[in-house]
Every structure is written in structure tokens, then in C-alpha cells.
Design a protein that fits this description.
Elements (H helix, E strand, L loop, with lengths): L18 H10 L1 H11 L6 E5 L7 H8 L4 E6 L2 H11 L8 E5 L12 E7 L8 H9 L2 E12 L5 E2 L4 H17 L16 H8 L2 E13 L4 H13 L10 H11 L13 E12 L6 H12 L6
Parallel strand pairs: 1-2, 1-4, 2-3, 4-5
Antiparallel strand pairs: 5-8, 6-8, 7-8
């Protein structure tokens, strides 16, 4: 997903939701992401909405899974992202299978009850009311259609060669800040959302909810794309002034990742790991009255901060 107004650009000018960042992030985890799509076992020839598609990085993977008779509708709130996605896919074998529409997660620009699969990657972390949003998405699925949500959980991150106590303080400070930053005028964010997704889908009314986790591990020497990703994530933990982190801890953390001989990324035996989650759920043929009321209300009222 791309955001039109980059409200959480940190003091070093690092917009982690900018298109260039998304491209680097995607390339650094391409092998795992290819496996994620294979594991979805998408029905060939079916139609799919990529909700919050950003610059269309997942499109080739999805198109390959759906086959030449499949259809993908890329939806994003950002016109810039959609233009970038269209340019990226121009001339590809699947170009004519893709359409591009501007819209939000809660108001998909497609007919109700028309979509076999809604796919969404790295968007749920920005949803202030994820249960309501996921319930709202259900109205666009055919009965028995599937929602597939992929996201990260920063609580699973591990950096070697860094004092575990320092890591804990940095993570705790970021978690505290994420609980408050929305009230301070920043974009809502929950970077610990991955492990919560299964519960959210069940609460939204989906059946047969399944969770699959993907461990992403790298060790030195790091590929350039992954090195850039790790440095960006490290900086992101202390962006926006890190109001709940002591200054000495901020400096100690930044020193660990600064280019030079002391950079932990270049030390022998350095390794990094994290876990990403793909959660799927089936929209029931006859959703309960409670869920119908909930998702219709969500459609009529635009959530704050979206």
C-alpha cells in the first residue's frame, strides 16, 4: 500500500511507505514472497483484488498463480502508486489481465459479491479498526470467497551482535509510541499486527481461518537489497524522535547500524531474522446478522485517519 501524504517521514528523510522503499523491501524478500503466493493455491482463471496494491510489486506473482485467464484488479488510495504499477506492468504477458482503480479498503471500486479472492499485503498495520475493515471487505466477495492478509510482526525480529537489553528497550519504546502516535496526528500504525490477524479475521466473521508463518533469516554477507532493508528498519525504530527512548539508547542503536567498521551488518556471524504471517479466511454463504450490520456500518462511515 502507498500513502499519498507521507506523515511519518523520520528526521533522516526515510519514508518507509514510499515507493522506492517498497521496491527494496519486496526485492529483499522475493524468494519468501514467491512461496507465500504458491501456498495460497489460487484458483486459475479466477478474479482477484489486490487491495492496497501500492506500486504493483505482487502483480507478477499473482498473475503467474492465476494464469492467463485470471483477472487482477489493483486498488490503492494513491494515484501515484497506481500509475507506477501500470508502468511497471506495461509490456508484460499479463498486462491485459490487470486493471487499476483508485479506492480505499473499506470502499472497493468493484460490485458487491463479485470477487473470488481479496489479497492484501502490508496494509493491515495501517488500519485503526481492522476487524471492521475486514468485515467490510466481505461484502465484495462471492459467497465462499477468500480473504488473504499478509503482514509482519516486529516482535519476531532478532538482530545478532546487539545487546539484547538494548534491543528490548528500543522495541518497547516503539511499541509505546505506536499506542500514542495516532493521537499526535501521525498515521495509525501497529507493527505488531501479524500475530493478531487470525483473531481479527475470526472476529470479523470469516470461517476456516488459517495462519501460515514464514521465517525470513539472513546472515552476513547480506545482499544489497536486504542490507538496505535492515538499515531502514533499524532507523525506523527510532524515527519521529523516539519519545519513549533514552537518548543514550538511541545513539547506541544508531551506532550499531552506521556504515563503517563498527557496523554490525558487516561483522562475522551477523544474522537477522523475522517472521511474516499470511492469514486466510472464507466469507460464509450466509454471514450472521451481527456481521452484516457491522460491515454495512463500516461502509457508510469512513474511519478516521484513512
Amino acid at each position: 500500500m502507498a500513502i499519498e501524504n507521507l506523515v511519518h517521514v523520520n528526521e533522516c528523510g526515510l519514508p518507509l511507505n514510499a515507493i522506492s522503499w517498497l521496491e527494496t523491501h519486496h526485492q529483499s524478500k522475493l524468494v519468501e514472497r514467491q512461496q507465500m503466493i504458491r501456498d495460497l493455491h489460487l484458483k486459475r482463471g479466477s478474479n482477484l483484488v489486490d487491495a492496497g496494491c501500492g506500486p504493483g510489486l505482487w502483480t507478477p506473482l499473482l498473475a503467474r498463480a492465476l494464469g492467463p485467464s485470471g483477472r487482477i484488479i489493483n486498488v490503492d488510495v494513491s494515484a501515484e502508486a497506481l500509475i507506477t504499477a501500470q508502468q511497471r506492468n506495461r509490456g508484460q504477458w499479463y498486462e491485459k489481465q490487470i486493471s487499476y482503480k483508485q479506492g480505499s479498503m473499506e470502499h472497493l471500486p468493484v460490485p458487491c459479491g463479485s470477487i473470488h479472492t481479496i489479497f492484501s499485503a502490508n496494509v493491515s498495520q495501517y488500519l485503526p479498526e481492522p476487524v471492521e475493515t475486514f468485515a467490510a471487505l466481505g461484502r465484495y466477495l462471492v459467497p465462499g470467497g477468500r480473504l488473504a492478509i499478509k503482514d509482519i510482526d516486529f516482535g519476531t525480529m532478532r538482530f545478532s551482535h546487539i545487546d539484547p537489553a538494548l534491543q528490548a528497550r528500543v522495541f518497547q519504546a516503539r511499541a509505546r509510541w505506536e499506542k500514542q502516535r495516532f493521537q499526535e496526528g501521525y498515521l495509525f500504525e501497529d507493527s505488531w499486527v501479524g500475530s493478531k490477524l487470525a483473531g481479527y479475521l475470526r472476529e470479523a466473521g470469516y470461517k476456516n481461518v488459517q495462519e501460515k508463518s514464514y521465517k525470513i533469516a539472513r546472515q552476513a554477507p547480506l545482499a544489497p537489497s536486504f542490507r538496505s532493508y535492515v538499515q531502514g528498519i533499524a532507523e525506523w525504530f527510532v524515527c519521529e524522535g523516539a519519545p519513549f527512548l533514552a537518548e543514550v539508547d538511541m545513539k547506541g542503536w544508531q551506532d550499531c547500524f552506521a556504515n563503517g567498521k563498527a557496523c554490525v551488518l558487516d561483522q562475522d556471524g551477523f544474522f537477522y531474522e523475522e517472521t511474516e504471517f499470511m492469514v486466510t479466511g472464507i466469507w460464509p454463504d450466509s454471514p450472521s446478522h451481527h456481521y452484516i450490520d457491522m460491515h454495512l456500518t463500516t461502509i457508510e462511515v469512513q474511519p478516521a485517519g484513512r
